[in-house]
Input
Amino acid sequence: MSYGDIGLIVLELLVAGGLFWLASYAEKALSTKWKLCYTIPMILCIFAIALFGFEVSMLGVYLGALCMLAGFMKEEKRLRRVSAMAAGVLTVISLGVCMINPEYRTPDYVEEFKESFSQLKLHYNMAEHKNIDWDTLYEEYLPQFQKADKEHDEKANALAWELFVQEFHDCHVSYMEKKEDILNGALERIAGNDYGLSLMTLENGKTVAVNVETDSLVYQAGIRNGTVITAWDGVEIKEAIDAYNRDNKFRIHAFAVKENEDFYRAMLVAGTGGDSVNISYLDDAGTEKTVLAGKLGNYKKRLEDTVDVIDQGVAITNLAWQNIDDETALMRMRFMSYDKEENFDQMSEEVRTKLLVLKDRGVKHLIFDMRSNSGGSDEYVKALIKLIAPEGEHTYAYDGVFDKKTMRYLKDENTGRYLVGERECYQGENLWGHGDITILVNTNTVSAGDHFSMLASAFPNVTIMGFTHSSCSAQGINSVQTGHSFLAYSSVLLLNEDGSVFIDTDETREATVPLDIKIPFDERAVAALFDDGEDYVLSYVMSLIEK
Output
């Protein structure tokens, strides 16, 4: 039961007892103030309903409060005592109903879906760009929410939302539960079983084991990080991977770029199977063998750990610096925000001072580690990008022209592109024109992180590197909130000068932010990441710098 309802029940029982006693005293000392006391229960109920919402299981409490109003209407001891006793009985009955009613305080999942869907359809600004088929989405997902509502299954509701948002291939479209355990429980349902390993496909097309559990049957059989897996439960591994991605909608998270999604495709197959699976692999001599591996538990934790190892960034705080060697310095950018007051001028000055100190010290190579940068403010981006941009005025992006009557961004009737509004710009200072800059990204470099990477990619001394492209999701966001969750979505349109969409991928899902060097995910990467605990991406960058 909710604490609000428990509190109201306790208060009503206490007040009912007090009013029962007051009936005898008030009969002898007639006064308006005693009459007013009998309105207290109803006042409490009105406040509770306003704060926590109406709940049908609490109807006895509400009716009990109504009964006690009789003591306000008529100053009669017997009537007041009977109404107080009736209120107490009704309140106790409500307590029992709340405890046994499976629908107690259960949200209407179907209505929430319909309302949120309507808001999304009205305000999501990438629908045309991504060719979203609203009718098909509605028809496909409504039954899932109806089933979750019928069964009062909060995890099924969260899972339906998670699958729904992934349909947009937009990292700004996301669903979050206020109770984290609900969504975690939902994802456990489809993550599958853990058999002691995860899978990744290498640059050469081979699929190998990674994140192998040392205390497992697969390890005892000889499977190590980097061992080539040839089949999963009797199905050739490539076919198993293709089949999973053909038949299942679940992804690790939303991927705007198809190439980024493909990078992680094999990982999910490692959770498929029953109580045990046959895993075929090549031993050290190149001989194919098969081990029957039993499940160790749920795969979700190993899946997340595998992603964390691959997507790691330098383990320092936001805007922190690290000296790599005498000529190389690194700054970590975890997110695009500074402090509670967002003092971006102060931040810019601090970074400017640091860059000048590094320059005077003879540092030539600057690395911005933006792996898994979760985004933030465009003002943050401007405050930093201007420091490394060539001198002169630069265009950041253009705002779209919004029509409040149609609630749509306007397009040019001839070209079909969006009408361009106000131009956002900044002045470059060229503080690092003497040296080179490397920006490290991954598929979770999103939003303002995408902005920074995109703008910097135009500078002649900048190289963008990573296992994958950045997320390529960069529009401004809004959200729809319910009592237990919220749905975020792209809503504020940013454009290029020609009216084309700034950064976000279209229905082709091809990357839009340049990746100058795609770091090969090969045997060396697997060994460095999963055996040695090394930051392979950073090591790879340094090997290029040293050349």
Q: What stands out?
A: The mean pLDDT is 92. Residues 3-100 form one domain.
